[in-house]
Amino acid sequence: xxxxxxxxxxxxxxxxxxxxxxxxxxxxxxxxxxxxxxxxxxxxxxxxxxxxxxxxxxxxxxxxxxxxxxxxxxxxxxxxxxxxxxxxxxxxxxxxxxxxxxxxxxxxxxxxxxxx
Length: 116
Hints:
By secondary structure, the protein is mainly alpha-helical. The chain is 86% helix and 0% strand. The protein has one domain: Helix Hairpins. It has helices spanning 2-26, 37-111. The longest helix has 75 residues, at 37-111. It is rod-shaped. It is found in: Mitochondrion inner membrane. It is a peripheral membrane protein.
C-alpha cells in the first residue's frame, strides 16, 4: 500500500510540475477566460516535449540501473566466493592443527615407558 501511495504522490508532483511549467511558459494573457490558439498550441507542445524527455530519461535510467544491478551482483558473488575460500582455508588450518595435536599425543604416548 505504501508503494502505491508513493507512486500516486510522484505522479501528482510530476503533473503539477508540468502544469506549472507549461502554464508559466505559454499563458501570456490572464484577461480572458479562454485560451488563445497560440496558448493551446504552446501548451500542447510543452506537455508533449516534457513527456518525451521524461520517457527518454526513464529508458536511460532503466538501462543504467540494469548495469548497476549486474555490477552489484558480480561484487556480491565475488565477495561470497572470497568468504567461502577464507572459510575453507580456516577449516583446513584447523584440521591441520588437530592432526598435529593428535600426532604429538600419539608420539608422546608411544615414547613413555610402560610400567611393568
